[in-house]
Request: fold
Amino acid sequence: MAVMTTRPRPRQSTTPPLRNSLRAVVLIGFMACGKTSVGLALSQRLDWTFHDLDHRIEAHEGRTIAEIFRDSGEPAFRQAERAALFTLLKELSSSPPAVIALGGGAFMQPDVRRVLAEANLPVVWLDAPPEALWERCSQQPLQRPLALNLNQFRQLYEERRRHYTEAALHVDTSGKEVQTIADEVIERLDLIGHSKEK
Reply:
C-alpha cells in the first residue's frame, strides 16, 4: 500500500520544491550507475512502485534491448523508449507514486526532457567516473550494445553528461552502498515524510 504524500517541510535547497501531488521520482544516469538497484531500494523505503523503463520496453517488444538494437537499430529503440515513458507517465495519474529508472540514453532525447519537465517530476542523476562505470559493466552479465570499448565508453559518457547536468539533483555513487545512495536521495529531495522509516 502506498504511503500518503504530505507537504514537505520548508528547507533551503537547490532542487525544486516537491508538491503534495508528487507522483514520481525519476532516476537517470550512464550505464551501470545503479539506477535499477538504487531505484528498487528507494521504492522499498518509500513503499512506492518501481518501474524500470528498459524492462517495460522488453516486455512490450517481446525481446531484449540488445535484440532490438541488433534487429531494428537504435532509432527504433529510442522510439519504443519514448512511447514506453509517455504511456507510463499517463498511468501515474491513477496509480500509486513511483520511482522510475530510465535507460542511459533516454534523457538525451528532447521529447523526454520536455515531458518530464512538463510533469514537474524531480530528476535525479546518479553518477560515477566513467572508469568506475566501465569496471561495473565488465562485471555484469548484461549485454550492453553501446559498451564496445573503454575509449568509446568514455566518449559516450561525456556526450551524455552535458544533458545529465540538467537534472534537479546530482548524486555521486562512487564507493557508496545502494541503501546509502537511496537514503541520500530521500534526504536531499526532502522525502523523509514519505519513508516507511520515520
The chain has one domain: 24-194. Residues 1-20 have pLDDT under 50 and may be disordered.
